[in-house]
Amino acid sequence: MLPIARRHVHYVFAVLQSGLTTGVASGIACLAATSGGRVLMNWLVAWMTSWVVMLPVVILAAPALRKVALSLTRE
Fold first, then answer.
1. How confident is the model over 24-38, as a mean pLDDT?
2. Three-state SS across 9-74?
3. Angle at the Cα of 33 (from 21 to 43), degrees rounded to 5?
4. Which residues cross the membrane (predicted)?
5. Domain boundaries, the chain
6. pLDDT of 5 above 80
């Protein structure tokens, strides 16, 4: 267990969610676009680049998206 306070759970979630999403998306794109033995290296570069870009987007967009999701659903 990491010593991260529960009040920071939204940041931990953002790191995990953006890492998983960008990893899968960049993997699919690299497999479709790359031939030969450079798939892994191309995927790693694409994943790191997309993660650096998407992490702040997820952190900033999550509160608004949560409000929209709550307004579209009911108890």
1. 81
2. HHHHHHHHHHHHHHHHHHHHHHHHHCCCCCHHHHHHHHHHHHHHHHHHHHHHHHHHHHHHHHHHCC
3. 45
4. 12-34, 40-65
5. 26-75
6. yes
More confident call, 44 vs 35:
44
Tokens 């990491």 locate to: 2
| Whole-number Å distance between alpha carbons of 26 and 30 | 6
pLDDT at 59 over 80: yes
Angle subtended at Cα 7 by Cα 20 and Cα 47, rounded to the nearest 5 degrees = 15
**What are 8-30's pLDDT values in tens digits?**
888 888 888 899 999 999 988 88
